[in-house]
Amino acid sequence: SGSKMEIWKQTTFACQKCQQPLALERLDVDGARYDLLRKPRQASMVLQGEADEGESFPEPATVISIPRPAAAASVDEPATRWSSTAQDLFDILSSEGSIDHPLCMECADLLFDDINKRSERTLQDLTRYQKALAALEERPIPDTAALQARLTELEQQETLMSANVAQLAREHEELLAQIAEANAEAATLDAQEERHWLDYNEYQRMLFEFLDFQCGTEAQYDHAREQLDRLKKTNVLNDAFHIWHDGHFGTINGLRLGRLPAQPVDWSEINAAWGQVALLMTVMFKLTDFTLKRYTIVAGGSAAHIETQERPPRDLPLHGQGSFRLFTENKFDTAMVAFLDCLSQFTEFIELRDPHFRLPYRIDGDKIGEGQAMHTIKQTGADETWTRALKLVLTNIKWCLAWVCRQHPQ
Questions:
Q1: Predicted TM-score (pTM) of this structure
Q2: 3-class SS at 292?
Q3: Which helix or strand (DSSP H or E) is residue 190 part of?
Q4: Is 141 exposed, middle or buried (0-12, 13-18, 19+ CB in 10 A)?
Q5: % residues pLDDT > 90 (the chain)
Q6: CA 220 to CA 217: how far, in whole Å?
Q7: End-to-end Cα separation, the chain, in angstroms
Q8: pLDDT tens, 262-284?
């Protein structure tokens, strides 16, 4: 019925400290007008107790009145109406202090314990302040005359110290002026030092450039001196007329002299080799001031020849074309025999000036060799014999060239 308490309904709120959900019970009073007071004490009475029919609260100075529902309203009014009323109540409680409401029982207990502890500390501070005030009140009043004398003495000291401070201030100003002058002089010296280091760096750069140039010049000088020493030790004839061998062939500047059945050297190469040999002989004759008898060697490249000194002179070609007559001498064979005679004359010329000089292979007419192994230089024989003889001829010429190089190292 409207005069009795209705069934409790549950509405959920959250604790403002631990944020745990809370379930608050609401009380519906029918047929009466109830007031929610702004005082927390009176608001808590609404939350904690049940309101009997016709019960009223003392009228406070400031209240918030919430009209009850109409008499015809159902007991199952919307939950939002109760939630709004409870929220207004919690806002009033929160605005009256520094604590936000609602709180759960655990948080309320903790808050209560904290307030008790702060209250105890406040009481202890109050006790200490009271004791300190009592101690101050029990102190004797100091002697005014002694204090006045002490004050006068301190004022005199203050005057003296003020004078000292003024003197120190003047000295400080003088020192600041000296410091400014010293700073200006230091700035001038810094500028001079900077110019000095710039000049020093420039001189260092020039010195390094000069040292680099000197080192380069010395390196060029050493290289040139090494080149000169090597050139002094180098003989032009050895470089210009390199006599060596290629298997069974004697060579001069890489040109083979001779022919073999298995290695038919072209006649242009043979004639060029004879041209190099003729040129080498004429150069050695000129260096040693040697004059041939009976013959004159004429270097003409691949067309070298030997001229006789008889009247009229005959021309003996020191080059061939591959044609010869069996059992008959041709001019090429005659020219090669004449060349052996020229080489023999030059050998005798060397032996007259160097008794220790001896050719490795003996020359006898148209033959050359050692011991019983003598080989004819004529082409009318076998190619192997002719090639062997030409190789021995080049060996003897190389010995003569070595002797000339020792006599004329330049």
A1: 0.47
A2: coil
A3: helix 144-233
A4: exposed
A5: 48
A6: 5
A7: 151
A8: 888 999 999 999 999 999 999 99
